[in-house]
Amino acid sequence: MVLRGTLGATPWDVLSTGLIRFIPVSFGTMTIISSAFVLLLWIPLKQKPGLGTIANAFLVGIAADATLATIGEAESLWARIALMLGGIFLNGVATAMYIGSQLGPGPRDGLMTGLSRVSGKSIRLVRTGIEVTVVALGFALGGALGVATVIYALAIGPLAQWMLPWFTIDLKMPHPTAQDIPSGL
Hints:
about 180 residues, mainly alpha, 7 helices
């Protein structure tokens, strides 16, 4: 949705839109390729992927291609703004959902937490460094940089933090046993 708003791209999507100018694959395929590359960066950090990590690496790219095939570019500025803001909001929901599921961080979030752990630097500093790096590289490759990039960068953290309690699974919650199930069921 952010891409269809044509007001820029999310930081990692700036990189993907830049790369697809040189490697002729779909946007979603490039997202999957970059996820796989980021997962390789986990190896020296000794990060361990979970089911959610692998699902995120593949499903985000597939969903991106499906969404781009379904939603056309908007004509009016208001429609473009609505697509951009809706896409950013829904990305906040998706981020809170996959982090809250506790099935493993996405490739980019695992890179962030791994670099933070190994370097001793704060998550905020590491995440900012990663985001600035991918935006600069993507922009140098001709990626779609714009107001959406800035809004996303400023909004995604607060949105995810706000929504995380709604979607977080409590792993310490006791699981029901046979004794907990009422008789007669």
